[in-house]
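Cast an eye over my tokenised protein here and flag anything odd:

===
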Amino acid sequence: MKINKSTALIAVAAIVLAAVLPMFISNNYHLNLMIQVLINIIIVVGLNFITGLTGQMNLGTAGIFSMGAYTSSLLATRLGINPWICLIAAIGMGFLIGMGLGYPSLRVSGVYLALTTIGFSEIVRILMTNLTGLTGGALGVTGIPPFSILGHKFQTNKEIYYLYLIIAVILIFNAYRIVNSKWGRAFLAVKDNPEAVEAGGVNIASIKILAFTLAAVYATVAGSLYAHYVGFINPSAYNLEYSINYVVMLVIGGIGSVPGNVLGAILVTLVPELLRFMENYYWLVFSIITLLFVIFMPNGMVSLFRSRKGTARAGKGEQANGR
């Protein structure tokens, strides 16, 4: 996979901006928002594999995220295992969930698959609420330790932000490589014309399962990072609204585009906070903004940059023909 110079420059500029931003922010609340943005980016980039590229609707993100969070936090608090090993265990849980949800996608699709993933998420939430002896029930899990390296614990928001920024950049770069590789093309082909793909000798089953597995792994990693950041989790927040929120991020940013996923996660995380001054009406205004985005920019925010590139190329072509 070759990365063109303009894309590389934009990526480097974005990373540099993200790295220097905390130097000008001292407010812990704002740093908390930035950490939440990084976690959301990881989830949306993962969701893009299954919903954005292969076109399989996944509304079980809340359940997958919570499984990663609970796997990591329970191992850390009940068994005293190092948080980094807990993160690896959460990745393993992601593989299991991806395989488990991937197989139903071979037989059902569309609204039926959406209902299947919603059912999975609700089952997880109910189990986490009722298995009080293991999960703490509605009271949740407390005292989750932070990540540490060579005895140094990442406790301040600024330290956690930089650690999570490194992890997020690695996962984003990995996702970008996959999307622009033969696997990414296979995902898109399954979405656009599965019959032709199957006739060409491509194993659709393995492609769909791989997409679900990647999405699940990214979500469980995000869940683990979140648990070790906040130090407390409970099942009440992981509902259908939570899952839909990530689909909104995917749509607003740009389905199928990794840069679009990043933009969508940033916008949908920060805009509601900027509208808090409207008090009870802020969610109504945000919903209207989302609806306008869907109507006037169905291909997401990233389409603005694509159209500008196309216009610039067309202008260069006209100049060349004029010569």
About this structure: Confidence is low (pLDDT under 50) at residues 310-320. Residues 204-230 form the longest helix (27 residues). Residues 186 and 202 are 8 Å apart (CA to CA).
